[in-house]
Design goal:
Elements: H1 10-22, H2 39-52, E1 57-64, E2 67-74, E3 79-86, H3 92-109, H4 111-114, E4 120-126, E5 130-131, E6 136-137, E7 141-142, E8 154-155, H5 162-170, E9 174-178, H6 179-190, E10 199-204, E11 208-214, E12 217-218, H7 250-253, H8 255-266, H9 273-281, H10 287-310, E13 314-319, H11 329-338, E14 354-359, H12 364-378
Parallel strand pairs: 1-4, 4-9, 10-13, 13-14
Antiparallel strand pairs: 1-2, 2-3, 5-6, 7-8, 10-11, 11-12
Helix pairs in contact: 1-2, 3-5, 6-12, 8-10, 9-10, 10-11
The chain binds zinc ion (ZN).
Zinc ion (ZN) binds near residues 227, 241, 245 and 248.
Length: about 400
């Protein structure tokens, strides 16, 4: 092949090859020292390397009790690497150092991100209310179910300046968010957001979180869905919520509430929702199924309230996989009750929203946190999102 015809002189070509040989951006694109590679391939590699050198990246971290889940994405939202870390304890400093080591491992795993100095941001989400403008976690508390068992109480001192702590530990611009909002961002990019710009998310974890997306943007409010009082008619039986209220949605609708009710109805102690669902399948512990039915009822009421005040076109319910898989007793009980949500709405709103059931997948939450960092740090909004809908009538 005549290298002149490729528009680059032999001297330029040699220089380009030397540059590429030193650049981690060309890893996997060009093999240093390979003299048989045509000039056109070297040029293409150089162009690709230049392209990569301009791309922005985000690390997303999800904090769940005992564990950190992390992903690295590029500015198109594509996931390039993932990591998980088991934490020795849930102290704030342990979490921050764990997040820093996961972040370093993720960036190190992707050569183009490693080379992207100044173009990597960090998003971090957890199940508690946060002030996104100051980067402060207002409080983070995971009370164990009230029954015998190994689940520990987790409580941070109030008002932790987590964004600043993460920035100090990682050297990256850092942004924090509530977990349900992170899941909502993931849906905005890759799920409900392709069909509508107006939807709600209900996130069933230890407690219950909620989020609203209006005109393709997150509603900036605390949205303490789990602390809406949905069972005031059962005050006599209800236990007080961690917030001090009675009949809060998450006292029966979240996983800790379900574990407590399994203990109450089936007289068995389990410390996770998978084992609780297994009990619901068995004849001798079938009372456990009632815990899932009650959870469906509580969440249906919560969804009714969301529809009454915000009229979303879709309500995305993220629940543990054992509560969403057809053919499982726990899922059947939960989903049947959940499907009754319209009976808790104003009649004029019946039929206005559809449910979208999603299992909590391992990386959606961390991915949502990374999307948050793309938006807050680089102003990158989702591609292919639905256009805003008209105002409610
Ligand atoms: Zn409460």
């Amino acid at each position: 092949m005549d290298q002149k015809e490729e528009g680059v002189s032999p001297v330029e070509l040699r220089e380009l090859k030397q540059l590429l040989a030193r650049s981690s951006l060309a890893a996997g694109l060009y093999m240093p020292g390979d003299d048989t590679v045509p000039a056109v391939r070297v040029q293409q590699t150089a162009m690709k390397a230049k392209e990569l050198s301009l791309i922005r990246y985000a690390v997303g971290i999800e904090l769940v009790p005992g564990r950190i889940v992390g992903v690295l994405i590029n500015e198109h939202g594509t996931r390039l690497a993932d990591e998980q870390l088991v934490l020795a304890d849930m102290e704030v400093q342990t979490v921050v150092s764990g997040a820093a080591s996961v972040t370093a491992a993720l960036v190190d795993a992707v050569p183009s991100a490693r080379a992207a100095c100044g173009r990597v941001a960090l998003g971090f989400q957890l199940g508690g209310p946060v002030d996104t403008t100051t980067g402060t976690v207002l409080f983070y508390h995971k009370a164990p179910p009230r029954m015998p068992g190994p689940i520990q109480d987790i409580r941070w001192p109030d008002k932790q300046p987590l964004s600043r702590m993460l920035e100090d530990a990682t050297g990256l611009p850092s942004f924090i968010e509530n977990d349900a909002n992170a899941y909502a961002l993931f849906q905005l990019w890759f799920g409900a957001g392709h069909e509508t710009s107006r939807f709600a998310v209900v996130l069933i974890n230890e407690g219950v979180g909620g989020s609203l997306v209006i005109d393709g943007r997150l509603f900036d409010g605390p949205m303490e869905l789990g602390n809406l009082s949905v069972l005031p008619d059962k005050v006599d039986n209800a236990r007080p919520c961690d917030c001090g209220g009675i009949g809060c949605l998450e006292t029966t609708g979240g996983i800790h509430g379900i574990l407590e009710n399994v203990y109450k109805y089936a007289h068995r102690t389990v410390d996770n929702v998978v084992d609780a669902a297994a009990l619901a399948e068995r004849y001798d512990t079938r009372g456990a199924a009632e815990a899932f039915r009650v959870a469906g009822h509580a969440n249906a009421k919560g969804i009714g309230i969301i529809i009454n005040f915000a009229r979303p076109e879709q309500v995305v319910v993220y629940a543990p996989q054992v509560m969403t898989e057809h053919g499982r007793a726990a899922a059947a009980e939960f989903l049947t009750e959940l499907g009754e949500f319209f009976s808790f709405c104003h009649p004029a709103l019946h039929g206005s929203a559809k449910l979208r059931i999603e299992p909590v997948r391992p990386y959606d939450g961390a991915h949502g946190a990374a999307l948050l960092a793309l938006e807050r740090c680089f102003d990158i909004l989702p591609e292919n999102a639905a256009a805003p809908v008209g105002k409610p009538q």
